[in-house]
Each structure stands twice: as structure tokens, then as C-alpha cells.
């Protein structure tokens, strides 16, 4: 069964509904329109209309994405920035969104994640625990200048227990 072609107007209406529910990246919407078989000219027209009507705003998306990935996924600045660049978000919007991160909250998220991970590694050698925690923090996208001291404090504390 061949899918029924979607008109540019129907595509626009679908995207307004999607954007009203949650923030979307322009690159993701362009891909969706392309997948629906919309012509490049119409894609540009739809995207411009969504921007004019404030359904689509990459700066607003970057802030929401940064907040959500930090809070719900426990990601660090490096991973958040990498993923936003992959979505085609402009560097100035990425920088602005990352600048809004509360340092105390950020450090608390890093420490909580490390402590949780350390509890799951308690039956291992101290050096294995340290290496696993370093890899874990790096994979979450935290900055080495933050996680090296945090891992050192955590592994020294667990040695003393």
C-alpha cells in the first residue's frame, strides 16, 4: 500500500500541532518534511511560516533541550553541546543555553551520578572503580576539570570507609 501524499498545508498543520506540544529543532522538522515528500521550496516556506508565527525558535529549543537533558538525563555540557550541534542549532544559541546552567545544580548532578555509579562498583579494586567513574563521567559529557577532582574525592572517601 502506497502512503497517501501529504500536501504542504497538511504538513504545516501537523507541524504546528507538534510544535505546540513540545519545542522542536529546525533540522528535525526539515528532515520530517523531506521524509513526507515535501519539495525543498515548500519546506523553506513552511519553516519560515513556523518561525514567523513563533512555533519554531532554535534559541528556545536549545534552552529547553539543555534544561531537560541536564535534569532528566544527567548529561554534562559537552554532550549537550555535541547533540545540539548535531541538530543544526547555531553555536551562539548553544553557548547561551549552556550559560544558563546553575553551577551548584550542575555540580550536584555530577556528584549524585558519580555516587550512584560508585555504589554499583563497590566490589571492585579501587583503581578499577576510579577508572570506571572517570569513563562514566566522560561518557555523560562532563568536563574533565570538574570530574577528575570529584572522582578523586569520592574514591578517597570510599577508601577511608
**Total number of beta strands:** 0
Helical coverage, percent range:
over 70%
Rg from alpha-carbon coordinates: 21 Å
SSE series: HHHHHHHHH
Beta content: under 5%
Estimate nothing, just give the exact number of structural domains.
3
Low-confidence stretches: none
How many separate helices?
A: 9
Main sheet record: none
Head-to-tail CA distance between termini: 65 Å
Shape: elongated
Oligomer: single chain
Structural class: mainly alpha
Describe the protein's architecture and organization:
By secondary structure, the protein is mainly alpha-helical. The chain folds into 3 domains: about 10-50, no CATH class; about 60-100; about 105-160. The protein has 9 helices and no strands. Helix 2 (about 25-35) runs antiparallel to helix 3, helix 4 (about 60-75) packs across helix 5 (about 75-85) and helix 8 packs antiparallel against helix 9. The chain is elongated. The N and C termini lie far apart (about 65 Å). The model has no long low-confidence stretch (mean pLDDT about 95).
Notable characteristics:
mainly alpha, 161 residues, 9 helices
Walk me through the topology.
Layout: H1 8-21, H2 26-35, H3 40-52, H4 58-73, H5 77-86, H6 91-99, H7 103-119, H8 126-139, H9 144-160
Brief summary of the model shown:
The protein folds into 3 domains: 8-52, no CATH class; 58-99; 103-160. The chain has 161 residues and is an all-alpha fold.
Amino acid at each position: 500500500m502506497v502512503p497517501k501524499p501529504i500536501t504542504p498545508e497538511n504538513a504545516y498543520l501537523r507541524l504546528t500541532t507538534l510544535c505546540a506540544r513540545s519545542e522542536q529543532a529546525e533540522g528535525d522538522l526539515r528532515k520530517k518534511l523531506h521524509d513526507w515528500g515535501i519539495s525543498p521550496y515548500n519546506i523553506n516556506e513552511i519553516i519560515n511560516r513556523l518561525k514567523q508565527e513563533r512555533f519554531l525558535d532554535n534559541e528556545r529549543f536549545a534552552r529547553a533541550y539543555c534544561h531537560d537533558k541536564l535534569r532528566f538525563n544527567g548529561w554534562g555540557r559537552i554532550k549537550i553541546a555535541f547533540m545540539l550541534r548535531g541538530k543544526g542549532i547555531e553555536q551562539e544559541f548553544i553557548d547561551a543555553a549552556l550559560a544558563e546552567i546553575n553551577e551548584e545544580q550542575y555540580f550536584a548532578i555530577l556528584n549524585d551520578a558519580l555516587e550512584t555509579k560508585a555504589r554499583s562498583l563497590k566490589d571492585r579494586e579501587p583503581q578499577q572503580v576510579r577508572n570506571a567513574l572517570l569513563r562514566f563521567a566522560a561518557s555523560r559529557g562532563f568536563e574533565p576539570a570538574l570530574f577528575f577532582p570529584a572522582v578523586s574525592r569520592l574514591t578517597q572517601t570510599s577508601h577511608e570507609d
